[in-house]
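QA checklist item 7 of 12: single-chain prediction sanity check.
[x] sequence parsed
[x] length recorded as 142
[x] structure emitted
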Amino acid sequence: MNRLSDELGELSVRAKRTEDVVDAAVTQDRERLRARLDTLKSAVDDQNADVGERMAKARTDVETKWVELRTTLDGHFADMRAKARQHKVERDIRRAEHRADDAEQDAVVAVDFALYALDQAEYAIIEAAVSRVEADELAAQH
């Protein structure tokens, strides 16, 4: 890329050439005009070639930047998807752990209930046995 001072210098030189063309047109100096026309045609051709090269380079630069951007974004989105999958796995693990905890708690409650039921059954058996002994003793007395 040219510096601003270089660009302004080039603008000044071209402005002077344009003034010369205008002077030649006013004086109708055909030879000067034809010579200037040939020079301008050559300069325009060179400039077109230069512009074509710069456009090709700019196009390549844009394509390179686009590929870099897409690669970066693809990586970013892949990371996001991987994190989401990991989060789902962690969430599934937490859910499974909660289900296991709940099942273990249910088992503890069931065992506690079974123990309570056994205690009640034992109490009822002892009470029944005591009642039978008392009933047999009363029957024996009468």
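[x] summary fact logged: The two ends are 130 Å apart (CA to CA).
[ ] second reviewer sign-off
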